[in-house]
Amino acid sequence: MQRLHRRRNANVLTDAQVLVASGTFQVLSDPTRLRIIHELLSGPKSVGALAIACDVSASAVSHQLQRLRDLRLVSFTRKGNTLLYELTDDHVGSFCREALYHAVAVSDSGVVAPYGRESAHDRDRRHRARAMRAIVTSSAGLTVTSLLELAVALLSGSVALLADALHNLGDVFTTVGIYFGFRMSRRVATTRFPYGYGRSEDLAGVVVVAAIWISAGVAFYQSYEKLVSGTPTTDLTLGMAAAVTGIVGNQIVARYKSRVGREINSAPLIVDAKHSLLDSAASAGALVGLVGVALGFPQADPIAGFAIGLLIVHIGIDATRDVADRLMDANDIDVTKAAERLAIAVPGVEAVGDVRARWLGREVEVRLAITLAPHLALSDASAICSQVERRVRSDLPEVRDVVVLCRSRGTAIALV
Ligand SMILES: [Zn+2]
Fold first, then answer.
1. Which domains, and CATH codes, for the chain?
2. Which residues fall inside 5 Å of ion ligand 1, going by CB?
3. pLDDT digits (tens, 9 = 90+) for 46-83
4. CA–CA separation, 415 and 66 (whole Å)
5. How far is the CA of 10 from the centre of ligand 1 (A)?
6. How far is C-alpha 412 from the geometric centre of its chain's CA atoms?
């Protein structure tokens, strides 16, 4: 009787056990965390490898791993300088595997996705991939167009065509710079670069700005030289054909970018489409110059060259201002206001001051000072700081780091 009683007890779940089990399901209900588990099914992985495999930032992966660790679903081992994460035991692995197999079976049998719509994460990922594809395709088309223009410019001696080709090449160069900066900025922080690689995009910006100003200089110098020396323009028909190629090429790219931009609701892509429309106007300027030469005004070509040079200067000023703002850590007013509002709403925070937000590549770093009641226990103060950090980070997805300076009312000593 005694034995039987004991055995029955062993089969009854305690409240605490039920809580842990339901907490486990709750933690696993997040698509990113499930993706991480799925990646870990095939063996231990570093944060960097998980970030690439799940297509989210390394800081997001770290954040999710922390939650998984809290429930002892994953653990880590140190291998040299990197931490390798793995599933703690096979219980987690086996039921996640079952859930994922089930999902594969359901989608293979032609049944619609279980919840009828894709997650925000999946949509973001699909949109980013489409934007990237649009940018790469446009750049490839534009490279061909501008190299063609450049070849004809050298052949015919048309400086307007040269300026237009340089301008188009500058645009391609800008895109390539942003693309590589973007790729690079997703790399994980190292001991040498503990703030991560976000700034690589700004570094690429400096190179791009330099290239824009050099191409403006070349366009002006060549136009001036031609105006003074009166060198004739030859192969006019070929030159006009190249200018028309520039107009058509940029129009196609503009329409393509604006269509994709509207479909995925991407502001930068729509702005870029408008830029391409302006570019086709520049090519039209080169065409007007060449038509002028054909009509007996040889100076029309260098004058068109100057006009296109001015357009490059205009773009150069805009780009320089953007890059300078980044390098000068210009404050993002929208983010600071939102962060201040979120911080003051946290219980225990009496005042918020000195809020700063600067962009490091694609992510924002926020720094703010909060005032707390004096004589608060250090553990309570620390908990309030963590809550401020969590609130700001979870409500503002562009924010990566939050530095909270904690002050006691009446003093100015930083605790955290
Ligand atoms: Zn342009």
1. 2-108 (1.10.10.10), 121-327 (1.20.1510), 333-408 (3.30.70.1350)
2. 171, 279
3. 888 888 777 788 888 888 888 888 878 888 888 777 78
4. 24
5. 73
6. 37
